[in-house]
Specification:
Strand content: over 45%
Number of strands: 11
Number of helices: 0
Order of helices and strands: EEEEEEEEEEE
Helix content: under 10%
Radius of gyration: 13 Å
Length: about 120
């Protein structure tokens, strides 16, 4: 599985960005695709995840109501629409794919395939 993240940039607080994750090689064995982020000096943390078989979506509390995850199967692309951005959203955003069990969909270590990351910087 290969993943390519894009769409990051420098924006002001309150602005919006849409990240894209283009995938190839996603097979029936892939259970979930997710977005994680890592701010300087911090651990990589879960942002949003999509359970492929049922289409259920999961969000971190810090982004719930502001970020929306979607997928375009025809384009093999997953999107993260980010609205009302805050300075604390500044991080490198990574997309990931893997076979976690449902209870581990938010667990970083449950994913084996990662994109290269795209920088999101939100100024105050």
């Amino acid at each position: 599985v290969q993943l390519q993240a894009s769409g990051g940039g420098l924006v002001q607080a309150g602005a919006s960005l849409r990240l894209s994750c283009t995938t190839s090689g996603v097979t029936f064995s892939t259970r979930a695709m997710s977005w994680f982020r890592q701010a300087p000096g911090k651990e990589r943390e879960f942002v949003a995840g999509l359970w492929l078989s049922g289409g259920n979506k999961y969000y971190a509390d810090s982004v719930k109501g502001r970020f929306t995850l979607s997928r375009d199967r025809a384009m093999n692309t997953m999107f993260l629409e980010m609205n009302s951005l805050k300075p604390e959203d500044t991080a490198v955003y990574y997309c990931a794919a893997g076979r976690p069990i449902l209870s581990q969909v938010r667990a970083r270590d449950a994913y084996v395939n990662w994109g290269q990351g795209t920088q999101v910087t939100v100024s105050s």
